[in-house]
Description:
Protein name (chains A, B): Fur family transcriptional regulator, zinc uptake regulator
Keywords (chains A, B): Cytoplasm, DNA-binding, Iron, Metal-binding, Repressor, Transcription, Transcription regulation, Zinc
Radius of gyration of chain A: 17 Å
Number of domains of chain A: 2
CATH architecture of the largest domain in chain A: Orthogonal Bundle
CATH superfamily of the largest domain in chain A: Winged helix-like DNA-binding domain superfamily/Winged helix DNA-binding domain
Oligomer: homodimer
Cofactor (chains A, B): Zn(2+); Mn(2+); Fe(2+)
Organism (chains A, B): Bhargavaea beijingensis
Strand order of the largest sheet of chain A: 1-3-2
Largest sheet of chain A: 3 strands, antiparallel
Number of helices of chain A: 6
Pfam families (chains A, B): FUR
Amino acid sequence: MNFNLAMEKLKSEGFKRTPSREAILRLLEREDRYLSAGDVRKALAEKHPKMSQDTVYRNLSSFSEMKILEETELGGERKFRMHCDRHGHHHHFICMECGRTEKLDICPMEQVTLALPSFIIDDHKFEVYGQCPDCCTAG
Amino acid sequence: MNFNLAMEKLKSEGFKRTPSREAILRLLEREDRYLSAGDVRKALAEKHPKMSQDTVYRNLSSFSEMKILEETELGGERKFRMHCDRHGHHHHFICMECGRTEKLDICPMEQVTLALPSFIIDDHKFEVYGQCPDCCTAG
DNA sequence: GAGTAAATCGTAGTCATTCCGAATTGGAAA
DNA sequence: TTTCCAATTCGGAATGACTACGATTTACTC
Lengths: 139, 139
C-alpha cells in the first residue's frame, strides 16, 4: 500500500486528513520496514516536535485496525509497517540489525488446518529472524 | 520436560534448589500451557504469599535461558510453559480461550532457508491461534 | 555448625502504552 | 466565507509489565 491509497482508505472510512496522519503515513511509506511508536516519534521529532505520543499510538492502532498497516510484536514492543497488499497472504523475514524485511510466500497453514480438524483457527504468526545480506557483511 | 528433570538440570547448572523454584516448576508441570508471570504469582499466592515478583520474573527468565521452559510473547506479555523436549523441533497451536496448547510438527523452515540463500537465519516463530475443541462447543 | 555466595524480599524505578480533560481543527452545512 | 461541532490533538497523569538494587535470608560446602 502507498500513501495515496492509504489516504483514500482513511477518507472512505470517515477519518479526517490531518498533518499528523500524513506525516506518519509518509514516514512508513518511505521506511518500508517495521517501526515502533517510539521510532515514529523520533523520526518525526524535527518536523513535528509537538506531536504527542497519544496521537502516534492512536493513529498507528487505527491504521492497523483498518489494514493500512501490518503489525507485529517484537522485543516487547508493537511494531508497524505499511501493508503489502499487492501480494496475497504472506509473511516476513525480519533483519534484527537494520529492521529490513523480506517477503516470504511460504506458509504451511493448509497443512495445519488439515492436522487440526476440530479446532477453530482464527490467526497465525510466522516470522523469520536473522541478518540480511547487507548486515551479514557489515557485522 | 517434567519436574524431576528440571530439578536435575538446575543442579547440573549450579543453581540451588529453593522452595520458590520448586513451586514455580511444579505449577508449570501441572498446567502444561503458557502462563504469564502474573498468572504464576496468582496461582501461587495462597501457598506462597510472600514470593516477590522479582523472584518470579528472575526464575522464569533463568529457566527459559537454560531451556527448561519455552517462551513466547503474546498480548504484550511474556509467557512460559514447560519445554516439550521429548519431541524434536515443533510449534504450537494456542487456544485463546483457555490457553491450551497443541503441538504442531509442521514447520516450513527448510523451504525458507532455500528461499533466502544469502541471509543468516537465527530464529523463527510459528504460532497458530484459535479455539480448541472444548472451547468451540463451550463458547 | 560456621561461612559464603546465591537467592529472595521489599520497594522503587523504567519503559511502553493507555487514559482523560481541555483546547484545537478539519470539513460539512449554512 | 463563516459557523459549527464532532473528531482530533495536546499535555500530562495513570497503568501495567518488567527490571534494578540494597538489605536480609538461605541453600549448600567444608
